[in-house]
């Protein structure tokens, strides 16, 4: 039985295929998105002031201030499953 991997070519020392890793690195990570929103929060003066507001992405790609719990609920986190 074959090992199941469809990737071929050079690997890194940790076993990751270089082609796969390059494709993964090209995608914007969650950390980068969160860092951008934190930066925007600092600019707007709401970071750490206890007002409960958070910067959220809209469908158009812009950002807006929103209640933090509502912003997190919009992404399907919490007890209720969004798409069940």
Describe the structure.
The protein is α+β, with helices and mostly antiparallel strands. The protein has a domain at 29-73. The chain contains three helices and two strands. A two-stranded antiparallel sheet has the order 1-2. A hairpin with a 5-residue loop joins strand 1 (53-57) and strand 2. The radius of gyration is 19 Å and the shape is elongated. The model has no long low-confidence stretch (mean pLDDT 77).
Q: Which labels suit this protein?
A:
single chain; 84 residues; alpha+beta; two-stranded antiparallel ribbon; 2 strands
Sheet having the most strands = 2 strands, antiparallel
The strand line-up of the biggest sheet is 1-2
Strand content: 5-15%
> On the 0-100 scale, what is the average pLDDT?
77
> Which term fits the overall shape?
elongated
Low-pLDDT residue spans: none
CA gyration radius, whole angstroms: 19 Å
SSE blueprint and pairings:
Elements lengths: L17 H9 L3 H15 L8 E5 L5 E5 H6 L11
Antiparallel strand pairs: 1-2
């Amino acid at each position: 039985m074959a090992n199941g991997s469809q990737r071929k070519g050079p690997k890194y020392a940790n076993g990751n295929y270089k082609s796969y890793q390059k494709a993964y690195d090209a995608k914007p990570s969650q950390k980068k998105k969160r860092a951008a929103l934190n930066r925007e929060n600092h600019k707007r003066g709401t970071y750490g002031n206890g007002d409960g507001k958070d910067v959220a992405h809209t469908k158009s790609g812009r950002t807006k201030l929103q209640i933090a719990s509502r912003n997190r609920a919009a992404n399907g986190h919490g007890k209720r499953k969004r798409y069940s």
